[in-house]
Amino acid sequence: MIPEKLRALGLAVTLGLSLILTACTIPIPSTEDIPSATGAAPRSELRDVPGIVDPDNTGWPRTVEGLNGTTDIEALPERIITASVGHDEMTVALVPLERLVAVGASSKDPTYSNVAGLLAEKPEISRDPETIIAQDPDIIVTSPYFPAEGVEALERVAIPVVQTALAHDAEARLNNILLLGYIFGEEERAVEFAAEVQQRHDKLVTVTGAKDVRPSVLALSRYSDQIWVAGDGSTEGSIIEAAGGVNAAATAGIAGHQTISLEGVIVMAPELIMITQPLAYGAEEFRQDLLNAAALAEVPAINRDRVHIVDSKLFTTLSYWNIRGAEELARILWPDDFPNPPAEGFSQAH
Amino acid sequence: MDGQHTLRSFRRLSVGTRLAVGLPVLSVLVLATGLVSLRLGPVPINTLEVVWAALSTVGLDGPSIDRTAQLVIEQIRLPRIIVGAAVGMALGLSGTAMQGLFRNPMADPGIIGVSAGGAVGAVTAIAIGLVDLFWLALPAFAFIGAALALLLVYGIAAVGGRISMATLLLAGVAVNAFLGAVISAIIYLIPSEGPLREILYWLAGGLDSRSWDHVRIALPPIAVGAATLALTARDLNLLALGDDEARSLGVRTGATRTALLAASALVTGSAVAVSGSIAFVGLVTPHVLRLVLGPDHRVLMPMSALGGALFVMLADMAARTVIQPAEFRVGVLTAFVGAPFFVFLLIKNKRQVYTL
Questions:
Q1: Would you call B327 and A17 a contact, using CB atoms and an 8 Å cutoff?
Q2: Complex ipTM above 0.85?
Q3: In this predicted model, what pLDDT tens digit does every residue of B251-274 receive, in sequence order?
Q4: Shortest CB distance from A263 goes to which of B42, B180, B200?
Q5: Which of A128, A199, A346, B299 is most buried, by the most CB atoms less than 10 A from its CB?
């Protein structure tokens, strides 16, 4: 019973975290804009990207190595399915929208996806491999959360599947973009886009990295009376660091996402609390409960009224949109350094 | 060998003697566990502060202590410990009643579908978003679900007029399976991650963030149900002799069974409403105590209440402290500890375990 539930959760999270686009952020590139990657000159930027077996091979077929082993891609994929929110977010930045043929429900849900607006009309896939096969994809890219038996089922019908990890730290995030670009035959666009993401990240950390005194920040959410905290190795933690804060939970020795009691909040004594759950799932109620908890009165973030609800999807997705989250948090932490709102979205493919 | 002999000798003592020995021992253990549990947690609080804060909470003045320590004891630890004790008490009592009523050592509080019904109620409240509107929705729906499940099981068993325990048991199995399917269907169909997370964590059972409101919700029905179960302990003994024998000794068998079922459902539903599904407490506690104290329900009932409370309090203390400042799920811990311990008991005491 429990494994089934956990599997269901994993799948739902995967599909959920993969399908959204805030319509105004990533413009849709046109088909004519697609550069032909076949036979293009090798790019040095691809050399050390994990997963690219032969970076000098920019023709077809080409081989990539994912978590599910090596996969040969015979030709430029025209019908792509990337079954996670993070992958979908990257894919729509790399290829024309029409090449992404279907997405999971979460990628279409603006609560979880930063590209939901762009994907609203896309056919929907589920955890059932048949729904994916029915879309006749040339290639499927999945996250580690996609079930192994699902990957096997797709491979049995001779559809190339690449299962790749999604990372939250800056370098790995760039590698994710470059690998996806290589898989899709969009190396030039991937290199260009990775540079843009890198530049935006560097611009932020040039300011935040120079801070001598960094406030401690705690990323909290509450589900069914359980308070969850994001510790070391979490996406939220990497965002806090990039924004110039110190992750209070990581300092307290918490790794990944763990539950804590209100006592844990007292012990960690954060100077700022950010609530990363969606507004629709009780973020404001949680904020009020924290502010009204008498036992928390001495916690700096509480007595200075520094409990902020942040845009959940910027802090929980696994893609370059995390940088936007870091920019938002940096504005909260360092308002004098970042007086203006950050750019809404990222560039489009050309 | 000596241990077995001592146990047998103890079980032959009179009910009064066994209670006179057992009740103080378990009561002291429960109180001591409560005090230790109050002392432990992420916020360091010394023993004296714990004592003064606890006294202050019940209206007795002592030296003033650090305000944060006072609030942590008063608002966080104490209500949680009390809810844990109440839940353990409810599950221990209900497990004892179900095992006695069904004359089945595998019976537990969930056997008549109450736990699954409570789970369906809670999962429904989460899935349709009611818990985001008002917090009471979750325990209320869990309780209503538990009550409806009992009515359903009882209604199925009552078809044709006469209720047999075998039919009741089978109806419970069927309803449990059906309600399990309902939960799976809700989990499968729910489109969003947030409610799905809430459901999964709730199903794992826990005492996170329990407050005085939860104490107020759980304690009155558990107290009423516990009193009813305690009053039926003698009749439960007689029911074990068979219906005819019990009737000849003055037991109104039908009414007694109904009272036992209703009281068990009341305490279990109340426990599930404030803690989710905490596994193995209702199954293991009566078993362990029966091995030590014998099968007399006049002894078993009060001792199972205390034993269940002790089990959950210890599990919660471990859940709060082993990986602090992070926490573990109580329901997971009770299953981790309860399942192997139960298997150990089965192997070690094959004969006694089946003596009800």
A1: no
A2: no
A3: 998 899 989 989 998 999 899 989
A4: B42
A5: B299
**B224 CB-contact burial (10 Å; exposed 0-12 / middle 13-18 / buried 19+):** middle
Domain count, chain B: 1
Angle at CA A214, nearest 5°, toward A209 and A219? 105
Question: Which structure tokens are listed for B34?
Answer: 């409560």
- A294 with B192: Cβ contact below 8 A: no
Q: Does residue B88 have a pLDDT over 80?
A: yes
Specify the residue for token string 């905490």. Answer: B278
Nearest CB to A109 within list B192, B208, B328: B192
CA distances from A280 to A111, A112, A297, A307 (A): 8, 11, 26, 17
Query: Whole domain around residue B171: which residue ranges?
Result: 2-353
Chain A residues with CB-CB distance to B67 below 8 A = 297-298
Report the gap between the CA of B192 and the closest CA in chain A (Å).
7
How is chain A split among helix, strand and coil, in percent rounded to 5? 45, 15, 40
Alpha-carbon gap: A221 to the closest alpha carbon of chain B (Å): 10
* Residue A85: per-residue pLDDT: 93
The CATH number of whichever domain residue B57 belongs to comes to 1.10.3470.10
Q: Is the peptide bond before A61 cis (omega within 30 degrees of 0)?
A: yes
- What pLDDT score was predicted for residue B351? 58
Q: Are A311 and A325 in contact (CB under 8 A)?
A: yes
pLDDT of residue B181: 96
Nearest by Cα to B187 from A3, A283, A133? A3
- CB-CB under 8 Å, A16 with B193: yes
**Percent of chain A at pLDDT above 70?**
88
A225 to B208: CB separation less than 8 angstroms, yes or no: yes
Looking at every residue in chain A, the average pLDDT score rounds to: 87
Query: Which of B50, B176, B193 to substitute to test the interface with A, most A CBs within 10 Å?
Result: B193
Give how far B326 is from chain A: nearest CA, Å: 5
Q: What is the pLDDT of residues A318-327, one digit of tens each?
A: 999 999 999 9
Contact call for A258 and B320, based on CB within 8 A: no
Say if CB B183 and CB B203 are below 8 A apart.
Answer: yes
Q: Tell me the pLDDT tens digit for each residue of B90-136.
A: 999 999 999 998 888 878 888 888 899 999 999 999 888 887 777 78
The pLDDT assigned to B1 comes to 53
**Beta bridge mates, B326:** A260
Mean pLDDT, rounded, for B147-176: 87
Work out the pLDDT band at B154, boundaries 50, 70, 90: confident
- Residue of chain A nearest B44, judged by CA positions: A267
* Angle (nearest 5°) at CA B198 between B195 and B201: 150
Domains parsed from chain A with CATH numbers: 2-201 (3.40.50.1980), 216-333 (3.40.50.1980)
Choose the mutation target among A11, A131, A263 for the interface with B, i.e. most B CBs under 10 Å: A263
Would you say A304 and A215 are in contact if contact means Cβ atoms under 8 Å apart? no
Out of A109, A267, A278, the one facing B43 most closely (by C-beta) is A267
CA distance B225 to B147: 13
Encode pLDDT of A110-150 as tens digits: 999 999 999 999 999 987 889 999 999 999 999 988 888 88
